[in-house]
Amino acid sequence: MILTSFDNVCRMACILYKSVILFMGKEERRMEIETLKRSHLKRNIIIGVVVVAIISAIILNFTRARYRTSYSVPLINGTINYSAADLNILAITVDGEEVDTIPTGNYELTEESYCEVNGVRDDSVELSYDMDSQMLTVTPMTTKGTKCYLYFDVDNSMTIQELIASKNIDNSRNGAITGTLTTNTTGTVYSVADDWGTSYVYAGAPTDNWVQFAGYYWRIIRINGDGSIRLIYNGTSTATTGTSTQIQTSAYNSTYNDNAYVGYMYGSIGASSYSATHANNTDSTIKGILDSWYKTNIVDKGHSDKVSTEAGFCNDRKTQSGVISGYGTTGYGTNATGYAPAGRLMSNGRYKSSQAPSLKCSQIGNDMFTVSGSSKGNHKLTYPIGLITSDEVVLAGGFGGSSNSSYYLHTGQDYWTMSPHCFNGSWANVFNVNSGGNLYGNLVSYSFGVRPVINLKADVRIEGEGTATQPYQVVES
Known about the structure:
Blueprint: H1 6-30, H2 32-36, H3 40-63, E1 70-71, E2 88-94, E3 97-99, E4 107-109, E5 114-117, E6 120-122, E7 126-130, E8 135-139, E9 147-154, H4 160-165, E10 168-170, E11 188-194, E12 197-201, E13 210-213, E14 216-223, E15 229-235, E16 248-250, E17 265-266, H5 274-277, E18 282-283, H6 285-299, E19 313-314, E20 337-338, H7 340-343, E21 346-347, E22 350-351, H8 364-367, E23 368-369, H9 390-396, E24 415-423, E25 428-433, E26 439-443, E27 448-450, E28 453-456, E29 462-463, E30 472-474
Parallel strand pairs: 2-9, 10-11, 13-30
Antiparallel strand pairs: 1-2, 2-3, 4-9, 5-6, 5-9, 7-8, 11-12, 12-14, 13-14, 14-15, 15-28, 16-27, 17-18, 19-23, 20-24, 21-22, 24-25, 25-26, 29-30
């Protein structure tokens, strides 16, 4: 459909009409006797035919203009200072083919779209189109007669809620766990209560929890109760085993002779109280490594706007009796102490046959590590990055005391969690995942793999299949 100025056509038609009247008037004076013999009706018919023919010729001429397709659409109020009729949409392209109308349904306006002002492309003009309201936004625009080219592609992106809705939801892991999980669980997530609602956990050997973000591959651990997506680093390829699945090896803490060193951050060494020991004043060795990596690879490369600053990381330092025979609950100095993460998996130094992992942080105010801008947790983080917990490992298919090389967290390497195990009177111990996929408490000064964990924001849109060959990717807005 071609949009021309109707007012201009009408003005031209009126001028032509007057010219014809004048011409006919002269003819009448010259042939007055003959004209009197003719009916006025015939004269009016001739005039009408002439005017219609001229108008048709004008329209036909416009149809031979350079642009084959023009289209007018509603505009968002307040974005431009002229009416919709002043904006011409030329060449609407959908999936590479030129069409006559803007598509409806699951399409998005692409970055190829642009506008011309006075015949010159102007890339400062920003275009967006809302498929639901069918409203076009053009900003900033002050020139009438702007001509725009719109390119549309199928929009295959989804929200996090739509991702959850596409899965089979199983609640069988929201309670006691009695062994490893090794089966292919593609298409299934497991609902488990957390501090903010319900988490949807990936477990076993799924093939649909791959994400590509910030130039790296990640695996989805779970969709948190606040809707954010928790990811664990997998490297620059989709290899699932080997050192490429971690950023480096490191001690958790380079020193180990105090209860304080089970902390992701810690307080005073040799203190005589739990609160002073587990205050969050000093970074652990591994926290410093993660912060540096995040700064270089997420912040400096412009990806931090997609990372949640609300979701936190639980370094559960609540003490618990009965974990190992003779260990108490004081939690300071060199007193032998058991910690709650081990208590959920162990009794009297042995792993339980029925283990009870939890996604609820025992002491949110002190042990839920969050950045200063978060509405949750302790606000002690410099950057929103941490490590996986022992509870998440068990929920994912690991099991304290049993090897498992057939679940997605197995890498054939030893790597750290951030869950305290115990202080045995001489050494601080934190859980790690060992090369066989088993959970084990180890001395914090050992050098194991570092696998960053981050959370993507709840409002991101993703596209892809979640497979290693077609991983989910964050849609850039």
